[in-house]
Design brief:
Radius of gyration: 21 Å
Oligomer: single chain
Number of domains: 1
Number of helices: 6
């Protein structure tokens, strides 16, 4: 069996200044992205194998498939609140939707890429958004190095690193991926500690391979430490607008911010028919999106998403430093993060108490 693959590109803009939390350098601008990644044992690239030899090998080995999540994450940081959305844009027939995970008391994550792994003999998939447990204390083995995320972000990043490690370790065929090609990605949205304020990060996970045997095509594969790229806040005095991340990152079409700056007629029509939306658009257009009224920004996003989603499913939510609410929830419920046993009961959380 030979699996098709497509070429995609990625472009990540890192923004930061001396007041920002540490972040990595910009990502490589091009990479080969596997549209449907078929695994030999756990995640093998099979297209290089002759069909006859491959058939013989599969008599002794199980084939495992990684289902990919593709789409767009859009974040509007308004006054005293964050409005976020994710649009489901499948990369292939069996794609899964972007999934949202409550990461800790002040962050959520939107998962893209190989976030679900399936063994044909097992009907229950391995999902990276399940059974996530926040680490109460930072493991001293994973102290943030220069150019990496802050300690709280590193804690989140390492938790997923440990989930991926046993999967990737079983990849023993050469993958047609460059060293900078991420196989999994998280968009982290939330609030930093110490009154830092709203933040948006993209976290990429890459692999490294080394041929360790001369018999056949046998490779040792390791997952690398995550790389953090800060999308928000921007550099000091830089315009503050709507930020967006895409997976695959070279998906065609303008971003929402580009449509607003370009006076797209469909979007300007929203403003002409609703004074509240006109004010939101004015704030974004002037690079002062953080001054927009939260409820107006949320309603504007609810109105504009159907225009840019092209009929694709989407989710929409709002969050502040005290709580988290859905406006357009996902089809399946978000699994609650397993609470840290050492966490004080009075500690803040993004989960609002249930309404009576």
């Amino acid at each position: 069996m030979v699996e098709d693959f497509a070429k995609y590109s990625v472009r990540a803009e890192s923004q930061g200044n001396m007041q920002h939390r540490r972040r990595s350098d910009s990502l490589s601008p091009r990479f080969v992205f596997v549209c449907r990644i078929t695994l030999f044992l756990l995640f093998g690239m099979l297209s290089a194998c002759p069909s006859g030899a491959l058939a013989q090998e599969l008599q002794h080995e199980d084939e495992i498939v990684a289902n990919l999540a593709g789409g767009r994450a859009i974040v509007h940081v308004a006054k005293d609140a964050i409005v976020f959305a994710a649009i489901d844009q499948p990369v292939e027939r069996n794609s899964i939707p972007p999934r949202v995970l409550n990461l800790d008391a002040t962050h959520i994550g939107v998962l893209f890429g190989a976030s679900e792994w399936r063994i044909p003999a097992d009907p229950k998939p391995i999902r990276l958004d399940r059974n996530f447990q926040r680490v109460g204390r930072v493991d001293p083995r994973y102290q943030a190095a220069r150019g990496e995320g802050e300690t709280d972000l590193e804690t989140i990043g390492v938790a997923f690193l440990e989930k991926l490690r046993p999967l990737v370790a079983q990849l023993h065929h050469k993958l047609d991926l460059a060293s900078d090609d991420p196989i999994f990605q998280i968009v982290i949205i939330g609030y930093a500690p110490s009154d830092y304020g709203p933040e948006v990060w993209v976290v990429d996970y890459r692999i490294g391979q080394e041929q360790v045997a001369t018999r056949g095509d046998y490779w040792q594969t390791r997952i690398q430490r995550p790389r953090f790229t800060q999308l928000y806040p921007p550099e000091k005095h830089a315009p503050r607008t709507v930020v967006e991340s895409r997976y695959p990152p070279d998906a065609k079409g303008p971003t929402l911010a580009e449509l607003i700056q370009g006076n797209d007629p469909h979007i300007t029509h929203l403003g002409s028919g609703e004074p509240r939306f006109a004010k939101v658009l004015e704030n974004i257009y002037r690079g002062q999106a953080q001054k927009a009224v939260p409820i107006d920004s949320a309603d504007f996003m609810r109105a504009v998403l159907p225009l840019i989603a092209g009929g694709a499913p989407f989710i929409l939510g709002t969050m502040d430093e005290h709580g988290f609410e859905w406006m357009v929830p996902p089809e399946e419920p978000v699994e609650k993060v397993q609470e840290d046993k050492n966490r004080p009961p009075e500690a803040p959380t993004l989960r609002r108490p249930p309404k009576p």
